[in-house]
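Archive transcription. Copying these from loose printouts into the bound notebook so they stop getting lost. Printout 1 of 2:
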Amino acid sequence: MPRKSWDMIVFDVDGVLLDTSRSYPCVIREAIRWGFGRFLGGIAEGTGFTMEHFHASKHHPAFNDDYDIAWALLSAAAAGRRLPSPDRWADMLSGFAGTDVIEWVGRSFGDRVDRQAVRDLCEELYFGDAELRRIRGVAPKYRPDASGFWRAERPMLSSHWSELPLPAGIYTGRPAPELALALRTLQWEDLPEERAVTADSGVLKPSPDGFRLLGRVLGGAAPLYFGDAESDRAALAAYGRGMFVAIGDILTDAALRFDTVEEGLAALFA
């Protein structure tokens, strides 16, 4: 697509603007480890959670929300008495044709694990005690010792949002409080609220509606969208305009892919 057809830049956050390799995957791993004892009575963990489990999940458009990866894997473990291997997990996901995780988990594994409890645990692990008290006004229920995995995140883009060559916005599966921490890490705290579509808006990938909302704010209709997961690619495909740019090593089959967003921007706006 000629560059003149792009009229706005949209970013996913995790794996694109921020290196989250030591935050969300660690949250999932710790939630599963804790969940085996808390929710499943200490059953054998099998292979244990690996990045192969994470990548297999991110290849499915339904798993934009990382906390649901932990819940779905714990549910599969409760049904099978062990965590499925990465290959077995990928096989399971290959038979999941929709994007409704709650329906698929219930149909496939039954109502064995409390989803909200897993999500609360993941949030405690991500925020840590101090941030959870500041943001939610509550003390941790499951992991009062959590220091907060968000602190391990690192910026992957050095430019300020206002310095980019086109109007810029964010379409993320993060809720607003988690995005606020990401913006703090990026030193983008001054990004106007209306330039970000979060899970709190009720618009969830792979819905294309995030691009429509941002288009009204940014004055554009054809986004250059930087993402790292299948839910990102599927969202832009459903929107039907613009160009998808894969970042990182998950979508290795993408037509256009760069190791980092810095490299992508440099190449596309040279």
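Printout 2 of 2:
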Amino acid sequence: MAVFTFYKFTLNEPSLKKETFSDFKTGSKLDLKVAQQLNDGGYDDHFGMPKVYNNDIIANHDNILVMTIENNKKKETTIEKKTLTHEHHPFCHVIIDYRDGQNLIAIERNMAFDNKPEKVREILYKALNRLFFRDNLQIDLQPLTKSYNDIWDAINTIRRRYHDRVKKICMDFSSNRNKERKVDSNALAAIIAEISEKTNAKGMVAFQSQGNEEMDLNAIQQDLLNIAEICLNEGEFDLSVHFYSYGVFRYGTDVTAQYGIDQEVIDDFVLLVDAFDMDKERIPLPRWLNNVKDIFHDFDTTAPTIIEPKRGHRR
């Protein structure tokens, strides 16, 4: 099953949405270029050659676009006792739903981009704005998220909405802990924190489920709430909850909208499989996207970037 992270997109000229995305024809490629990063963290088109990301638009109909984006990696292999380096281009799927009332971009979370959809979002944000610049268009992409003050609420939301299970709970100790705070040498957590400081390394206490069983969180509910409060108040420890499918939720951050879909559903849409011939237990891609919108109706985008319309040529 492919897992996607969801973003909301906005154009500074909303009336041009369908015209813009319908121009991206099935079988074509987008000119996805991203400027090289400078030492100060900024970007400059004149600093070396921009990075180019190969891609393929594999379907664009019914106002839904499906494409693949490849990463630029290297891979080592050993042949006749010699280590050789080859180009390696793993890919992920991107779905752009530009139907009325949707405005969703779904980015597959897989190892092609190190399970970090935000990397793909950055590529799309920069490359599409470069592409749209000549038409005085700007696009903004913001993740769908929801904040939770109570870690228990966040965990239960992920378990319920994603039909997921908790496999590990980690408490990380920062090497930048407050040296002025007194350390109780009888406390295991304090000892690990002190060793972390002395070795200039990150220490960790982790509790992991056995096999494929979920941890018995109900047995430690109050303990978990107490640990979460310590982590939040002291700022020297990071608490993370690891799920089998969702990935990692770090306490103090927002829960991001993610949802899984069978690869066959995407394939049916790409191949224009007739509804009569589809597996009756599968939900067609357009309906799956509608369901996602309903499921995450209470999720919001983060504060949007202010888009200033530019004067000039209109398409």
